[in-house]
Amino acid sequence: MRIDLAGRTALVTGSTQGIGAAIAAGLARSGARVGVNGRDEQRVGEAVARLATEVPGGSFVPVAADVASEEGARQALEALPQVDILVNNLGIFGSADPLDISDDEWRRYFEVNVLAAVRLIRQYLPGMTERGRGRILNIASDSAIVIPAEMIHYGMSKTALLAVGRGFAKEAAGTGVTVNSVIAGPTHTGGVEDFVYELVDRDLPWDEAQREFMREHRPQSLLQRLIEPEEIAHMVVYLSSDQASATTGGALRVDGGYVDSILP
Predict the structure, then answer these.
(1) 124, 154, 197, 238: which is the annotated catalytic residue?
(2) Mean pLDDT of the chain
(3) What is the DSSP string of 88-151?
(4) Does the annotation count 154 as an active-site position?
(5) CB 3.0 to 4.6 Å from 189: which of 18, 95, 99, 149, for a disulfide?
(6) Cα 163–chain centre separation
(7) Dihedral (C-alpha) 88, 94, 100, 106: value to the nearest 10 degrees?
(8) Would the pTM count as exceeding 0.90?
(9) Would you list the domain boundaries of the chain?
(10) 49 three-state secondary structure
């Protein structure tokens, strides 16, 4: 299958590293012009330079903006007034005792993981529907379905994100715009390495720490390893393409079989 995104402009939020950077690279390899987003201008510039080396000939646009805020969303719109592919990847996560999570922390998770996506969809969906084509993708998590006891606030926000995707897919019905969620399973990123070491012995080498984490905390994974960011990106690139024109309102899993269910 050859995916050609030439002439399309994409915005990938939270894309200076990890899954977001892998998605940005994947879209650029298929010919899209990609907005690389982060809060810090220097980090965004460094990420753009790194991606340009990784994808020779790729087209990247720096979008330095805190899209978890209303002002940041407006700044993103100024940097990229027209977007054909919106990937809401920005998210925060972390473990916490459920009874110790403050009201402010609950609000912060909802603001960053849910409202940031809602604001950007409101900004870009009207233009997509007017042009009669577009792709909106929300990066969710297995934690939306299998709520971890140590990350209830995170799981809540990702469950809400699934609802956001399904709801806006109905708003876009019949317009040529598709809206989907990608349910990512336990994925190997720098942030996840830190998280793993919060739960297992920090003295263990990474390979052993990863195996212990999967065995003790994610034993239902059929893959029995962490997913690589590029594996999430492959699904996003496909859903961004013309080949995925009949897929909308869905929650598609790249979870390594972690969720023990035929349907989400």
Answers:
(1) 154
(2) 96
(3) E---------GGG--HHHHHHHHIIIIIHHHHHHHHHHHHHHHHT-EEEEEEEEGGGTS--TT-
(4) yes
(5) 18
(6) 15
(7) -10
(8) yes
(9) 9-187+227-252
(10) helix
